[in-house]
Amino acid sequence: MFTIQNYVLAESPEQAYTLNQKRTAVVLGGCGWLKMGKQTIATAIDLSALGLDTITETDTEFVLGAMVTLRQMETDARLTAQFGSFLADSVRHIVGIQFRNCATIGGSLFARFGFSDILTAMLVLDAQVELFQEGRMPLTAFVQMPRDRDILLRVYLPKQKLLTYYDSYRNTITDLPSITVAAACPNADTIRIAVGARPQKAACKEFALPSDSTPETLQSLAQEMANAYAYDSNMRASAAYRQHLAKVFLYRALCTLLHKEG
Amino acid sequence: MQLKFTLNGTAIVDDIRPDMPLLEYVRSKGCYSVKRGCETSNCGLCTVWLDGTPVLSCNTLAIRVQGKTVTTLEGLQEEAAAFGAFLADEGAEQCGFCNPGFIMNVLAMERELQNPTIEEIRAYLVGNLCRCTGYQGQLRAIQKYLSRHQEEKA
Predict the structure, then answer these.
(1) Per-residue DSSP letter, A164
(2) How many CB atoms lie within 10 A of CB A179?
(3) Residue among A2, A4, A99 minimizing CB distance to B41
(4) Is the CB of A2 inside 8 Å of chain B's CB atoms?
(5) Who contacts B146 (Cβ-Cβ below 8 Å, separation ≥6)?
(6) Do A173 and B126 touch (CB under 8 A)?
């Protein structure tokens, strides 16, 4: 458990940003991961009073505040109408609903956790993040940036009709994933994929869809896509096993998105 | 820091450290049903309701319930006893250690889900671990509990 010397319920994003410039400051998300450490926090910054706990929509996009919980996102009827079960599929194995009622979208994305299901999923949705200092940028760019002291305020999900696929492998249900795979087809010729928990953080890549979709062609493309990532070993899975799992899921993604039997 | 909130219907004003977890805080107020069964946010034993939503009190800082309403099993005795009787009838309790957090989540599920399927029940309760009795008895008890009104009518 961590200790907190000073707790501030931020009154503005600017105040939160200013306070967060000290190395000993921490922005509080749901605290599920933070509590696993033992750090001493000089100033804990709470974004709860900034109205960032709602999901709103415009004609072109959904806007998720950083303090929206995983469970809020999972049960939002508007998001389900747009993306089907994709977002719910990405979080349903994360511990349990009580945990997901605490864990926040902002905390999950800002930390760029290697094991993050939600990062994997949102990468293929063409999501953007809004940072206090840096402004809006694609999540694909944000994920590559070194962790800095900016404040993540909102996540934007464009309203686009996408065929999507999500799956993860866990050694036991509710454990951290050994591999996470998300895929979407932004157009008829392209598949966009993200593979995470390698155990490095998820990264997004695009591939051309083949002109024929025989099992051999799809297996070969799945292998090529899986080979495009680097994998490492840890207590949950070896690098070779992760690569194998990625290939299996990517093949299933191709079959699902091309309406073939897996 | 000053904390004002409502615990099981009682307004509380207190002075607390900002890093005090809600779990230890409500125990210090006599809510001993709330337990720490793990150190990794996995067991569900510390489940309480925050404005009616089930949360892990081990993950929640007490200072963050400012102005909100917290409910523990101590505040739901009648309902808990009613469901507890179904658990007992199915032999779904041995040591009872996980029982309070489990009951809190079952009662939250009853409020949130309409006629849940077995799969939906399992998905809702997957974050409540039981390490002695097992889950089949619990599942039977839940199904009978949720359909109790239909049986009364029949």
Answers:
(1) E
(2) 29
(3) A99
(4) yes
(5) B110, B115, B116
(6) yes
Average pLDDT value for residue range A114-125: 97
**E strand segments, chain A:** 3-9, 25-28, 40-46, 55-57, 61-65, 128-131, 135-138, 152-158, 163-169, 179-187, 190-196, 203-208
The type of residue at A261 is E
ipTM value for the complex = 0.96
Residue A94 and residue A166 in contact, taking contact as beta carbons nearer than 8 Å? no
Distance CA B20, CA B18 (A): 6
Chain A residues close to B54, C-beta within 8 Å: 97-98, 101
Closest residue on chain A to B54 (Cα) = A98
Which of B55, B56, B64 minimises the CB distance to A46? B64
Confidence of residue A110 (pLDDT cuts 50, 70, 90): very high
Distance separating alpha carbons of residues B91 and B85, to the nearest angstrom: 10
**How far from each other are the two terminal CA atoms of chain B, in whole angstroms?**
55
